[in-house]
């Protein structure tokens, strides 16, 4: 089994920082263009623009642990900055599963990278899944942080059964498109 070396960890740190920055860009784009639904669309927008960085990590450091660490940078962020208590779990579990699919399975390469990237992209659903599945606990946590009901109502404004399915389906679609775009950029600038 190939293990991560110090040089790998340094590279992973750089790629994790770039990934964090792409998520930040996706968040800002959604916040200023789709005010009501912006938080529900951050995972899909991130999937759309993070394909290149995922391909770099998967191809340049093809060892178990690299994808997990890159995705887990968001778990650390969600945990450190007081997001809903369970928000960090998907940001660790989905990258771990994606890492397993990418490095430990014998699926055909093209299918494997697509499947692993789609799974990885669901890592950013941690902050939004409780909006549907733990509504009361989420409201209590917001109130405990001193938020008023006006703010709470604004958080839940776009939350419905339909928005759940739309946001999850969009993650699948945009991860496919984002990886295709990423492959073009990767092949042109990073493959050599």
UniProtKB/TrEMBL annotation:
TM region positions: 12-30, 36-57, 64-81, 115-134, 154-179
Keywords from the named record: Membrane, Transmembrane, Transmembrane helix
Highest taxon of source: Bacteria
Coiled coil regions in record: none
InterPro entries named in the record: CHP02185_IM (IPR011733)
Pfam families given in the database record: Trep_Strep
Protein name per the record: ABC transporter permease
Species per Swiss-Prot/TrEMBL record: Vagococcus luciliae
């Amino acid at each position: 089994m190939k293990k991560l070396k110090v040089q790998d960890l340094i590279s992973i740190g750089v790629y994790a920082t770039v990934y964090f920055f792409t998520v930040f860009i996706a968040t800002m784009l959604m916040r200023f263009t789709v005010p009501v639904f912006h938080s529900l669309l951050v995972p899909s927008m991130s999937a759309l623009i993070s394909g290149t960085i995922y391909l770099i990590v998967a191809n340049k450091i093809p060892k178990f642990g690299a994808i997990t660490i890159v995705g887990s940078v968001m778990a650390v962020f969600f945990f450190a900055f007081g997001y809903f208590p369970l928000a960090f779990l998907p940001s660790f579990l989905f990258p771990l599963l994606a890492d397993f699919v990418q490095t430990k399975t014998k699926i055909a390469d093209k299918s494997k990278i697509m499947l692993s990237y789609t799974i990885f992209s669901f890592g950013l659903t941690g902050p939004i899944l409780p909006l549907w599945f733990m509504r009361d606990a989420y409201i209590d946590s917001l109130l405990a942080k001193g938020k008023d009901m006006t703010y709470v109502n604004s958080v839940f404004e776009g939350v419905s059964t339909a928005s759940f399915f739309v946001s999850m389906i969009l993650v699948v679609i945009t991860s496919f498109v984002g990886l295709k775009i990423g492959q073009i950029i990767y092949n042109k600038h990073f493959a050599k």
